[in-house]
Every structure is written in C-alpha cells, then in structure tokens.
C-alpha cells in the first residue's frame, strides 16, 4: 500500500485553486445519457460527480470551534441492482456531552419523462436515526420514486466537535466515480498529518493561501486551502479473505499534529510511544487495572492449587477467567468500570475480561503484559506515530521461561495460546508496566487442520456402509465446537447435519473432546449412502469428491490490488477407502494431480488407486501462508481453477461378472 505523508505549514505559497461545487438540481441530458462504458460497463450505478469541503469555524451558539463538512453528490442509476445506492447512511459521532449534527439536508430523484426532467424531492420525514453504539448513531434515508435510469442527488452539512481527525474523504466506494473532489481549509494554527491511502493516484492536487479565513479571539488567521481531485475512479470490489476495506480504499486521512494558539504557545497532539506508555500505564481504566493484584490475592491459591509449574498455573488462571467473566461482545482497550466489578458481575467488555486475566496472572507472580491491537474489521494501525483511537482490542501476554503466549479469555472454546482470528491483524503493541512498549507480530500459533477418513464397503446393491471420522485442530476445532454449541446438544447438531446431508444417512455417532479444548475434536459417524441411482445396474459413475468439494472459485477479479489475507495457514487431508467387495471392477479413475503455489505457498495433491479390491483416494490441500500479496493473486486464482476441474472427474465402476 502506498502511503504519502504531507505536513502543511503556514509557509505554503499561493497556487491557483480549481475547485468548484456544482449547482443542486441542474441535471442535464448528458447526465441522463452518460455511457457507463466510459468507466465500467458492468456498473449498476455511477457517481457522476461528488464534491466536499471541510473547514474549522466558530459555532455561533456556543462560541466553540467546530468542524463544518459539506457533502454533495449526483449518481446515475442504471438498473434495479443499483437501487441500493439510494439507501443512504451517514455515521455521526457522539459522546456524553457533544455530538455531530446534520443540517441543510436535501435529497431528490430526477426522472426523464416526456422530454423533461421531473424532480421528486424526499420528504424530510423519511429520515430517521438509529443508535449504533455508545459513540455512534446513524442517519438513514432513502431517495423516492426510483426507476431504472433515475438520477439521484443529495447534499448535507455536518457539524462536528471532533477536530482531531478533521474529516476523512473516500475517493473509492462500491461504485465507480467520474469525478471525486475534496477541498479542505486548514487554519494556520493547526498542523495536520495527512496521508493518502490506497492504490489509486490523485489526478491533481492544488494548494493556495487563503487570507483571513478565521477570526479567533480578535485575531485573524490565514488558512491553507488544499484541493484533492481524482477522476475515473474504479469501484472497490470486496472479495473474501481480506481485512477492513478501509485499509485499501483510496482515501485521504487527517490526524492533528499540533496547535499553535495566537499567543505562540504550542500544544502537541502527535505523541511518542513514551508519552503513550505513561498515559496507558497510569490510566485508571487501563494500567491501574493491570496492577489490581489485590482482587486475586485470596483467590489465586485455590485457582492454582493443582498446578505443578508456571505453565500449568497460567493455564489454570486462563480457564478460571474464561468461566468467571463472560464477554458482553463489546470491544475496547479500557475497562468500563473496574475489573473487580466485572468479576463480581461475571460480565464485561474485552478490556474487562483480559485486564482481569493480566491482574490474575500477575497475582500468581507470572510475567504478564497487555497487548493492544486493532481487529481485522477495524483497520490498520498508523505506525508512523501513536494514535490510541486506532486500537480497539486488548489481550494478555504471559512470558514463561523462553516462551511467550498470547491469551484472550473472551472465547471459552479457544485453547491456551490461540487468539481469535479477529485479532490476526499485522502487529499489536505490548504494554508493560515497567518497560518501554514494543511491537509484536500477531500470528496464529496453530494452523487450521482437518483430517477426514472414510472407510466403507460397497454392497452388491450399490450401497456403501462404513465410518467417517473427522479430526479437527486449531481454528478448525474452534469453529466446529462453536457450531455444535449453537444447538442444545450434540445429538441435535447431528440430527440437523443428517437433514442437510441429502445423499448420506447418519446411523450412529460419537463426538469426543467437545469440551476438552486443548485436545483435537473428533467426530465419528456410522454412515450409509447409495452410489448408484439404479438406472444402470452394470455400469455407473462415482464421484469421490463429496467431502468438502470445491465447486466455486473464491477469486474472480481480473486484478486484485489488496492482499489475500486468510489469517492463518491451513491443512486439509481427505482419505477415502471403499472396499468393492468383489462386486465391481474399476474401469476409469480421476487422473493423479500434484500442483503447487510459487515459493512453497501451498499445494494440492490428488492420488487415486485400486489396491486389490479397495478403491483409495488421498487428497491434500495446504495453504502455507496466512497472507498472499496481490502479485500472487493470479496464481491463487489458477490454483483453484485447476482443483475445480480435477474434481469434476469420476470413477467408472463396472459390475463384476
């Protein structure tokens, strides 16, 4: 990902600007007839033009500084699949004292009827708000009177008390854009670090010095007026196996570096990690909670009573916290109240759970640290300088001998030392109460491993009777345990599984180690299935690819500009042995195959043979990397295509004389 860092200071020279908004409601015949082939022939909708401005101003009512953001967009709808673009959601930040507000909202749909454009304005009563979280509410509205060929247009003004992040501008969205233009007016007292993310390049960028744009405490202040322009912006297409789309969409981000007040005093907002370390370790909702050994002073002896060494002590404490403090599904790096209260209530956010874990480990004289991170869906962390708001999750790290283990007690079904997949996002920052913080790679300690073994006998009537065993480890075991636990019992899970398996009947079953999460999960099924439909009693085809068959390529883009992030390496093995029992002979079989990804990135092996009267198939699918870079994408795409083709092959069996 290309990143550019700009620091705009008062010394910027005057350059002619070109930015200009467009008139609301001025729909033209050229808009209506815009040929999407110019930008994307498959587009369901196209942004004809969008324009935005952001500036810092004084709120007349409160006298406080606020951010004023104006947005205006015009979109051509081509078909019903494009109607979703008329459902608009605007996120609004709020806290206990202040919140962002929307003013001057206008929204209209324009249809070409009898040689003229007819406007249908949205009724303001059609707007509504939804509280998404403690800090976010959503403004939602839908434009009216849609039809294929409509042009929709809307604009609004957003006022925000949040000056730190100014206002992000996304050049890319899920539909292509002809013109995307953004203008910012930054007072000379404010210095922002500005970063351009994504793979699309700016078409143009202009800067000028705007005199006396703001009056503060009787002093006039000049502004840097900066305009960003991007034309013919392709749609950002999301595919499976990726982290947050915000990591890769082309956008411009702002983060406040420092403010110089009119008297000359400077307040720095770009901190060093030394500053952040002190803030976090002394914060009453973070560092103070890590220090709360007193909460566990009397509990620890009973918790670690049977533990013979430090590793077993850590495991006992980890299992205790998993049982005692239930995660309430809220993220965050700060305890909501304090860890003692969450222990008493037996419930809390991520920070409550894992700061309890750190305190308990420390109370047992184990070397415990905190690791703050950003989850996969939350996006990337800015590593150029600390931004605490980038982090939304905290886990524990315990150091025993020469080994370290990262722990998250929010998931009861995870074994010791394995973090949830949501945490597998580049690096986290280790926070120690006595030492400087440092980065640590967030890599899975185990692969996703699944082994399938089917042994059966083919009867004369074409029915196979046998056993199917599935052995799952790592994330595969976690996911399967989670799936089984959704049901009231393992028996109900198997009953529903039997309903889904239309060709296979489960006669009996056992599931071992369902609650023993440190051990592999083993499922054993007695099964029977018929491999012939009875239309030809002498010859028939048998497809051996009925266990986790790959029928669809997950990679379909011509070019993918962002990595394929699986989160974890994987290993799947399938062994099928069917005794033909003297009743059938093998006439044809699938061709053996051995293909691999470059740089030992993975492999697929397929081998079939007839050993005496036993038909055998061995299949291995391995991905050795958690992340594959964009230049490896064509190889992954071709890799899957070859597997899909190979799995279309079948055995041809002929009845023995």
Automatic annotation (TrEMBL):
Gene3D superfamilies: 2.60.120.1130, 2.60.40.3140, 3.10.620.30. Residues 1-19 form the signal peptide. SUPFAM superfamilies: Cysteine proteinases (SSF54001). Keywords: Signal. This is DUF3857 domain-containing protein. It comes from Pedobacter agri.
């Amino acid at each position: 990902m290309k990143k550019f860092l700009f620091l705009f200071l008062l010394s910027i020279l005057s350059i002619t600007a070109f930015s200009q908004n467009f008139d609301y409601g001025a729909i033209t015949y050229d808009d209506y007839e815009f040929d999407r082939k110019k930008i994307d022939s498959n587009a369901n909708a196209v942004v004809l033009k969008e324009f935005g401005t952001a500036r810092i101003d004084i709120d007349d009512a409160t006298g406080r500084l606020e951010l004023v953001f104006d947005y205006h967009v015009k979109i051509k709808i081509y078909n019903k699949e494009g109607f979703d673009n008329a459902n608009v959601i605007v996120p609004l930040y709020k806290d206990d004292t202040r919140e962002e507000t929307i003013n001057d909202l206008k929204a209209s749909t324009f249809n070409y009827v009898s040689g003229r454009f007819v406007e249908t304005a949205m009724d303001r009563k059609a707007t509504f708000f939804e509280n998404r979280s403690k800090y976010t509410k959503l403004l939602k509205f839908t434009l009216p009177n849609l039809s294929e060929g409509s042009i929709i247009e809307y604009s609004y003004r957003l006022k925000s008390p949040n000056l730190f992040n100014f206002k992000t501008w996304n050049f890319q969205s899920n539909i292509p854009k002809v013109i995307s233009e953004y203008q910012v007016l930054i007072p000379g007292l404010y210095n922002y670090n500005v970063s351009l993310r994504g793979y699309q390049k700016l078409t143009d960028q202009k800067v000028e010095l705007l005199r006396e744009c703001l009056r503060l405490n009787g002093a006039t202040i000049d502004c840097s007026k900066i305009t960003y322009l991007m034309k013919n912006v392709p749609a950002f297409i999301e595919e499976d196996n990726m982290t947050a789309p915000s990591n890769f969409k082309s956008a411009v981000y702002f983060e406040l570096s420092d403010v110089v007040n009119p008297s000359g005093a400077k307040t720095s907002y770009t901190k060093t990690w030394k500053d952040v370390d002190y803030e976090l370790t002394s914060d009453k909702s973070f560092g103070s909670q890590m220090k709360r050994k007193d909460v566990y002073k009397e509990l620890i002896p009973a918790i670690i009573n049977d533990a013979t060494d430090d590793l077993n002590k850590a495991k006992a404490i980890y299992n205790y916290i998993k049982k005692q403090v239930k995660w309430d599904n809220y993220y965050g790096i700060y305890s909501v109240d304090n860890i003692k209260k969450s222990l008493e209530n037996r419930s809390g956010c991520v920070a409550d759970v894992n700061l309890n874990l750190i305190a308990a480990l420390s109370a047992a004289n184990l070397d415990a640290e905190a690791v703050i991170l950003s989850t996969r869906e939350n996006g990337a962390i800015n590593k150029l300088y600390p931004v605490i708001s980038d982090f939304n999750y905290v886990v524990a790290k315990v150091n025993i001998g020469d080994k370290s283990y990262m722990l998250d007690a929010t998931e009861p079904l995870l074994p010791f030392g394995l973090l949830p997949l949501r945490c597998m996002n580049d690096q986290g920052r280790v926070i120690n109460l006595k030492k400087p913080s440092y980065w640590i790679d967030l890599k899975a300690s185990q692969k996703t491993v699944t082994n399938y073994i089917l042994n059966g006998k083919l009867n004369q009537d074409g029915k196979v009777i046998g056993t199917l065993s599935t052995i799952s480890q790592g994330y595969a075991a976690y996911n399967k345990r989670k799936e089984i636990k959704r049901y009231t019992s393992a028996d109900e899970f198997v009953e529903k599984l039997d309903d889904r398996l239309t060709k296979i009947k489960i006669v009996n079953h056992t599931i071992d180690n369902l609650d023993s999460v440190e051990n592999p999960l083993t499922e054993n099924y007695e099964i029977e299935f018929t491999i012939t439909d009875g239309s030809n009693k002498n010859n028939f085809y048998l497809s051996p690819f009925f266990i986790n068959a790959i029928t669809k390529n997950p990679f379909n883009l011509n070019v993918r500009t962002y990595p394929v992030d699986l989160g974890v390496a994987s290993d799947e093995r399938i062994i099928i042995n069917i005794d033909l029992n003297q009743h059938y002979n093998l006439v044809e079989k699938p061709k053996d195959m051995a293909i691999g990804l470059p740089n030992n990135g993975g492999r697929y092996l397929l081998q079939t043979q007839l050993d005496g009267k036993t038909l055998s198939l061995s299949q291995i699918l391995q991905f050795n990397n958690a992340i594959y870079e964009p230049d490896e994408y064509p190889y992954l795409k071709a890799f899957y295509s070859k597997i899909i083709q190979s799995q279309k092959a079948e055995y041809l069996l002929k009845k023995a004389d």
